[in-house]
Design goal:
The chain has helices at about 30-45, 65-75, 95-110, 120-125, 130-135, 140-160, 170-185, 185-190, 215-225, 240-255, 260-270, 295-310; strands spanning about 15-20, 25, 55-60, 85-90, 115-120, 165, 205, 280-285, 290. It is built from twelve helices and nine strands. The longest helix has 19 residues, at about 140-160. The structure holds iron/sulfur cluster (SF4) and zinc ion (ZN).
Length: about 325
């Protein structure tokens, strides 16, 4: 029987993971420790939290968010004045989100973490299942992204958090960088910085997992015995992001480390982007949330969808 090579960190235990971009072979313990160290380094490098931060963690029930929740709860133990609260958004995707929310709730109970949920139905009067039935030109993920961003901010404000930690991993960051470049959307590119920024009306968003590749986040969850939802959202296939994800995964096999290169290049570019006047300066005349124009994007989308539904009513 073939014996696994020894871990290059501890030199004593058999390795279970080969890290192609660094050449390391790691045993389960050294692998998990390396993820925690990387997340701690990221938090301190970008000064993501204060010693007494009240941190809302966006928990979807997937591997990244549940791994992040476990890690932040552990890290927070060193900071007695800091607090972690889990917030989840129910977008209303039947057969998908309900299972993820069950797993999120169970994880919070076992970790002793306060858990709040908000639903699209309560906030916007529409579920994603209804939106996909009515939608016009946009993909389901375009609607979902705008509405979930609002819902997460609202949930973080409801629990009086001063930080909103989301579990975007390295793959998400590299995909977002390419996606925004391909759309020519420099404002969004500038907004993807993992340290976030302080804007009136918004809880500062931070991304402690931004340097953890997706496959390592998955392995971390498996090795720690974290139960997570692995089934993808039924609407995910329609997104342009899916094409970019596949492309980047193929490139990463050919050229290990390419996702890090794209992510780091984005971090270099972001401070050089001038997005003067792009920050929300006023308030939406419908919902009162911060916006650059007269009516915010959320109210525009919800308004269009509602009109479409009225148009469908028999007269
Ligand atoms: Fe929403 Fe798209 Fe994610 Fe599904 S895949 S939860 S529609 S953003
Ligand atoms: Zn509005």
């Amino acid at each position: 029987m073939k014996v696994a090579p020894l871990c290059t960190k501890c030199g004593s235990k058999p390795s279970v993971y080969f890290r192609p971009y660094s050449g390391e072979r790691l045993c389960p313990g050294c692998f998990a420790a390396s993820i925690r160290e990387r997340v701690e380094r990221t938090i301190s490098r970008f000064r993501m939290f204060e010693f007494d931060s009240r941190i809302a963690v966006g928990v979807s029930g997937g591997k990244d968010s549940l791994s992040l929740l476990h890690l932040l709860v552990e890290i927070e133990e060193q900071f007695p004045k800091a607090e972690v609260i889990a917030v989840s958004i129910d977008e209303g995707v039947r057969g998908y989100r309900d299972e993820a929310l069950r797993l999120a709730g169970e994880a919070c109970r076992s970790l002793g973490v306060e858990w709040r949920t908000l639903s699209f139905a309560d906030l916007f009067g529409l579920t994603m299942d209804e939106i996909t039935g009515r939608r016009g030109e946009l993909t389901p993920c375009s609607y979902c992204g705008v509405l979930r961003r609002r819902a997460l901010n609202q949930a973080a404000r409801d629990v009086e958090a001063d930080r909103l930690a989301t579990a975007h991993n390295l793959d998400d960051m590299a995909q977002t960088a390419l996606l925004n470049l391909m759309r020519g959307d420099l404002r969004r590119l500038a907004g993807m910085h993992p340290a976030g920024s302080d804007l009136p009306g918004f809880v500062r968003r931070v991304k402690p997992f931004c340097e953890v590749p997706e496959r390592e986040s998955t392995l971390y969850a498996y090795l720690r015995g974290i139960e997570f939802q692995s089934r993808p959202c039924p609407y995910a296939e329609t997104a342009m992001r899916t094409d970019i994800r596949r492309f980047l995964n193929r490139m990463e096999v050919k050229r290990p480390g390419i996702k890090f290169i794209i992510y780091r290049a984005a971090l270099e570019i972001i401070p050089r982007i001038s997005v003067g006047g792009a920050e929300p300066s006023g308030r939406c005349r419908i919902c009162g949330e911060p916006t650059r124009g007269d009516v915010c994007r959320v109210c525009q989308l919800v308004g269009e969808l509602s009109k479409e539904a009225e148009g469908e009513q028999p007269s």
